[in-house]
């Protein structure tokens, strides 16, 4: 965050990490104070590149690199005009060409290459495709509205579910309380001995518990998946393309040791090597050490590089 | 493992001549550099020749071995072997005149303790230098820490050294398991150990793999005891068909034995003479070069200056702005 300072006042950024940077259309940053300072005197020129600016052109910086911010702004403006979609094009190739055109334009505008020509191109495109642009704009707004509606619906159903669960809990609590109260009343008024009353109360409490359990099991079956597809609706899927490739075969790694072959760690005991190594004490084996490890290492070192290299 | 280690790739050479050539070129490079800086006192005759360097190297190597053997707590053999190998590798590419072997030898031992996970604190380490006062030990420790990075750099950061001690254990285990003709391989252990101790003072570690050195040690001690172990090579190591490898192995074993025989401990008077020369050279060179930290010589300037200047600029700008603001206020009123 501190690697770039405000180009005007320099110190303030280091001393005040909460100070925000603002970026303008030419891609240079200024901290909030400097922006106000600059426009207090009525002159509106960028410090580094001297382009005339307006105070409204300053936006809060989102990215660390101001050029990225500048590009993001330019891209938003360009995409408002160049808003065709994939199905507007007859083939993938043409869609890709179109996308490349858009990227060229954004790149040119960001790096100030050939700005005049690019702007001319944009205007031309706008004139030619005015109706398509309008249509796509309308579609976009419609889609956004639909998404918002879905979102609202989801939120509402969540709310409802929450309320229901709360109510259920309340009811259960009340039932329990009533049960207890009934027991107390009976103890007061009835003639039967206390143990019988207690037994009856226990039975009732058990019954209540099982009722609650059963209710919990009764989950309300839903009729719709979260993506909007109805359950039990046959959705036709395209068969997945099968990709056939050569199967992978594991080949163990071969390393040239320039020496005689070393027996495997597991076979050392069988060959009798371990009889000549100090046996591992209980303290050693606790940590996972075995005498085979030391033996293996010694044998490896003894055989590594023993033979002179060929040639 | 040794077969894919940096030791095999970068620090195992084909012949003794190659190794000797590297040392000669290190010496020549240093001499050329010193003579080019054109200090009038230092002339070609004053500098150490290859023979002198060799004598001093062997002398300091023995000193290091004694230091490691007298070390408290007892240093494991692999740590000693690693330290000696570092010493040897360092002076393959550097001249003795450039860095004094006394500091390098202590730095090698220190680094080897760290690398081999033989935990010694630095104060404990210099506490083993019994002839120094505690203040002297502190100074030595500082020097060691200065030279440590240089040492690691000159070792090309290849710090793992494979010593022949574990291969020897492995060979003895294998002999006991698969070679019943030899009744008591343990009897070979002592003289094989001696062979290895002698071998570590030669260039054997730079020319042969540690398992070959271990095998030579075992075979040598067997032949000294009068036992013929050729059948071990042909039967157990399955070299009966592979005559070429067998002859090559015998060849390298012969070379190794020659190396050990050629080693002679340094002559004391020669050592004194060369040591005097060395001290004189070091005194001359130390006075000329200013005391920069060893190993940090490449990035001499630290990046402190630019930041200071920037801060000064910031503050001056703030002052100026404040000043003009006051001025404006005054002018308006």
TrEMBL record, chain A:
Keyword match Cell cycle: yes
UniProt keyword annotation of Coiled coil present: yes
Subunit structure: Associates with CDK7 and cyclin H.
Annotated Pfam families: CAK-anch_MAT1, MAT1, zf-C3HC4_5
A single GO molecular function term of this UniProt record: cyclin-dependent protein serine/threonine kinase activator activity
Family matches, as Gene3D superfamilies: Zinc/RING finger domain, C3HC4 (zinc finger)
Protein name: CDK-activating kinase assembly factor MAT1
Localization: Nucleus
Role according to the record: Stabilizes the cyclin H-CDK7 complex to form a functional CDK-activating kinase (CAK) enzymatic complex.
GO biological process terms on file: nucleotide-excision repair; regulation of transcription by RNA polymerase II
Organism name: Kryptolebias marmoratus (Mangrove killifish)
Automatic annotation (TrEMBL), chain B:
Record-level GO cellular component terms: transcription factor TFIIK complex
Keywords, ordered alphabetically: Cell cycle, Cyclin
Residue ranges constituting the Cyclin-like domain according to the UniProt record: 62-153
Pfam family, one: Cyclin_C_2
Entries under NCBIfam families matching the protein: ccl1 (TIGR00569)
Family label: Belongs to the cyclin family. Cyclin C subfamily.
Quaternary context: Associates primarily with CDK7 and MAT1 to form the CAK complex. CAK can further associate with the core-TFIIH to form the TFIIH basal transcription factor.
Name of this chain's protein: Cyclin-H
């Amino acid at each position: 965050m501190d690697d770039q300072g405000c180009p005007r006042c320099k110190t303030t950024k280091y001393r005040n990490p909460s100070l925000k940077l603002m970026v303008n259309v030419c891609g240079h940053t200024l901290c909030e104070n400097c922006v106000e300072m600059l426009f207090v005197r009525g002159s509106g020129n960028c410090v580094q590149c001297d382009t005339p600016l307006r105070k409204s052109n300053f936006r809060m910086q989102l990215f660390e690199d101001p050029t990225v911010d500048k590009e993001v702004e330019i891209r938003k403006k360009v995409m408002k005009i160049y808003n065709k979609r994939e199905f507007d094009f007859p083939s993938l190739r043409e869609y890709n060409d179109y996308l490349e055109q858009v990227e060229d334009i954004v790149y040119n505008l960001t790096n100030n290459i050939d700005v005049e020509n690019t702007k001319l191109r944009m205007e031309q495109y706008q004139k030619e495709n005015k109706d398509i642009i309008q249509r796509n704009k309308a579609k976009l707004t419609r889609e956004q509205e639909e998404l918002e509606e879905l979102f609202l619906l989801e939120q509402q159903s969540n709310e409802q579910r929450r309320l229901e669960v709360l109510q259920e809990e309340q009811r259960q609590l009340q039932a329990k309380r009533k049960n207890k109260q009934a027991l107390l009343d009976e103890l007061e008024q009835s003639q039967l001995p206390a143990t019988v009353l207690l037994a009856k109360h226990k039975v009732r409490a058990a019954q209540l518990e099982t009722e609650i359990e059963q209710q919990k099991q009764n989950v309300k079956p839903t009729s719709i998946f979260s993506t909007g597809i109805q359950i039990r609706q046959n959705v036709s899927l395209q068969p997945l393309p099968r990709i056939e490739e050569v199967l992978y075969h594991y080949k163990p790694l071969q390393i040239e040791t320039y020496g005689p072959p070393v027996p495997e760690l597991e076979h050392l005991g069988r060959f009798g090597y371990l009889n000549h190594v100090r046996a591992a004490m209980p303290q050693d084996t606790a940590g996972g050490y075995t005498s085979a490890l030391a033996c293996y290492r010694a044998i490896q070192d003894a055989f590594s590089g023993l033979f002179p290299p060929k040639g | 493992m040794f077969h894919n280690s940096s030791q095999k790739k970068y620090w195992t050479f084909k012949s003794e001549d190659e190794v000797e050539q590297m040392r000669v070129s290190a010496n020549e490079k240093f001499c050329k550099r010193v003579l080019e800086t054109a200090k009038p006192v230092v002339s070609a005759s004053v500098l150490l020749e290859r023979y002198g360097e060799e004598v001093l190297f062997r002398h300091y190597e023995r000193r290091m071995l004694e230091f490691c053997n007298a070390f408290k707590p007892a240093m494991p053999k692999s740590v000693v072997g690693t330290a000696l190998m570092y010493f040897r590798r360092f002076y393959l590419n550097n001249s003795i005149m450039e860095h004094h072997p006394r500091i390098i030898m202590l730095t090698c031992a220190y680094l080897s303790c760290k690398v081999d996970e033989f935990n010694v604190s630095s104060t404990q380490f210099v506490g083993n230098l019994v002839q120094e006062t505690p203040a002297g030990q502190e100074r030595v420790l500082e020097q060691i820490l200065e030279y440590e990075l240089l040492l690691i750099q000159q070792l090309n950061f290849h710090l793992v050294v494979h010593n022949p001690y574990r291969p020897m254990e492995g060979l003895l285990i294998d002999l006991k398991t698969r070679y019943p003709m030899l009744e008591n391989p343990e009897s070979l252990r002592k003289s094989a150990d001696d062979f290895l101790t002698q071998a570590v003072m030669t260039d054997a570690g730079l020319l042969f793999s540690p398992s070959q050195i271990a095998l030579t040690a075992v075979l040598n001690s067997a032949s000294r005891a009068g036992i013929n172990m050729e059948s071990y090579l042909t039967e157990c190591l399955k070299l009966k068909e592979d005559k070429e490898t067998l002859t090559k192995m015998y060849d390298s074993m012969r070379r190794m034995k020659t190396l050990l025989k050629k080693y002679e401990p340094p002559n004391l008077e020669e050592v004194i003479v060369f040591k005097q020369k060395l001290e004189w050279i070091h005194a001359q060179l130390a006075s000329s070069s200013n005391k920069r930290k060893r190993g940090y010589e490449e990035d001499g300037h630290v990046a402190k200056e630019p930041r200071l200047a920037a801060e000064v600029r910031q503050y001056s700008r703030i002052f100026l702005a404040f000043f003009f603001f006051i001025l404006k206020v005054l002018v308006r009123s």
